[in-house]
Amino acid sequence: MPHDFVEVAWLAERIGDPRVRIVDARSVPHGGVVAMPSGREQFAAGHIPGAVHLDYADDLSDPATPYAARVAPPDAFARVMGAHGIGDEGIVVAYDAGTIPFAARIVWMLRYYGHDEAYVLAGGLPGWTAAGHALATDTPVMVPATFTPGPRPELRAERDEVVAIAEGRSDEQLIETQRDQTYAQRDRDIPRAVRISGNLLLEDARGGRVADPATLDRLVHDAGLDKHARTVVSCGSGVSASGAWLALRAAGFDDVAVYDGSWMEWEHDALPTVPKPAR
């Protein structure tokens, strides 16, 4: 089983550990219409002590594709990480509000760039406060660090790979995992995509934890998926897909990649679509 999460008690015991870097990943969905405070506003109102704030779109996206929050190029990603005190030897724990899986997006980015010691805080910020731990409002001053990116292409699906699936030229599996609230705002899909709601793979009621094994097995079975086939996960802007990446790893999938551009790139590039399946 992959080790992708750490528990609140584990983190609480390590507050102040110079090797542990905590990232408040709360953000606003890129290109979405959901009204909510910005991630920085949420951070300023209260965060886990010692945390720095990183927004997946504002801080860590590729400026060459402003229409889609693709991960920043290696050098730019490394600069941001280093400036926030995240180096090669650091243990990164990212958290969010336990609903939209922004922490999973940060963790996927770090793993994509070769940093294995990156984890999601199980239960998110609600789990931290429910355990009686205090919040802080200060912004910590971080000592710059050196982050050396080592891209793992197998964790990222580019547009051409997804086009091959959509056109029937590939035997790979494509799963659409956008969360229900934003998925409802569109009426089209990428051809040959199988729908599994991100709300089912990661459960809001449990602070964004991965669904239990029986639920995962049922979702995979009902969708007719093969755990041993290469599988690409897509969503709106790569956030729910990153959460799905964690869930499918927990379900025993061998080879899962995030379609980094997701629907925002697909729609922007006017690639072929089909009507969403009837519910």
Written description of the protein model:
With 279 residues, the protein is α/β, with parallel strands linked by helices. The chain folds into 2 domains: 5-151, Oxidized Rhodanese, domain 1 (3-Layer(aba) Sandwich); 154-275, 3-Layer(aba) Sandwich (Oxidized Rhodanese, domain 1). The chain has 11 helices and 14 strands. It has helices spanning 8-12, 39-45, 74-83, 102-112, 124-130, 159-166, 180-183, 198-201, 213-223, 239-250, 262-268, and strands at 5-6, 20-24, 52-53, 91-95, 118-121, 156-157, 173-176, 188-189, 193-195, 202-203, 209-210, 231-234, 256-259, 274-275. Strands 1-5-4-2-3 form a 5-stranded parallel β-sheet. Strand 2, helix 2 (39-45) and strand 3 (52-53) form a beta-alpha-beta unit. The longest helix is centred in the C-terminal third of the chain and has 12 residues, at 239-250. The radius of gyration is 18 Å and the shape is globular. It starts with a strand and ends with a strand.
Termini gap: 33 Å
The count of domains is 2
Biggest sheet architecture = 5 strands, parallel
Oligomer: single chain
- What is the molecular shape? globular
In round numbers, the mean pLDDT is: 95
- How many DSSP helices? 11
Q: How would you classify the helix and strand content by structural class? A: alpha/beta
The largest sheet has its strands arranged as 1-5-4-2-3
Gyration radius, to the nearest Å? 18 Å
The helix content, as a percent range, equals: 25-40%
Determine and state the CATH class of the largest domain.
Answer: Alpha Beta
- Provide the CATH superfamily of the largest domain: Rhodanese-like domain
Q: Any idea what the CATH architecture of the largest domain is? A: 3-Layer(aba) Sandwich
